[in-house]
Design a protein that fits this description.
Residues 1-88 form the MATH domain. This is TNF receptor-associated factor 4. It contains 1 helix and 3 strands. It is elongated. It has a single domain (1-43, 60-95), classed as Apoptosis, Tumor Necrosis Factor Receptor Associated Protein 2, Chain A (Sandwich), CATH 2.60.210. It has one helix at residues 68-71, and strands at residues 12-16, 30-34, 84-88.
């Protein structure tokens, strides 16, 4: 956390990976990208002063990322496993 600039404002991408055989069909990954709002509490620097009941510890998500119906249409679940790729675009100056 000490290497990052706060509030957190880097572009984040989540992808649900289609596990279909690529030789049979082109994978159709589900992808969502967002730019955090630096004014939102969840993207402020974490600290020991937060309690477990603080609204800023509730997390962030996509309530409509993919429906249960759509997740069954392709091989997003295979052998009871899913793969979610998370990417964060970090500025060159940090690397």
């Amino acid at each position: 956390d000490n290497l990052l600039e706060w509030p957190f404002a880097y572009r984040v991408t989540f992808s649900l990976l289609d596990q279909s055989d690529p030789s049979l069909s082109k994978p159709q990954h589900i992808t969502e990208t967002f730019h955090p709002d630096p004014n939102w509490k969840n993207f402020q620097k974490p600290g020991a002063s937060r309690s477990s009941l603080d609204e800023s510890t509730l997390g962030f998500g996509y309530p409509k990322f993919i429906s249960h119906e759509d997740i069954k249409k392709r091989n997003y679940v295979r052998d009871n496993a899913i793969f979610i790729k998370a990417s964060v675009e970090i500025p060159q100056k940090i690397l």
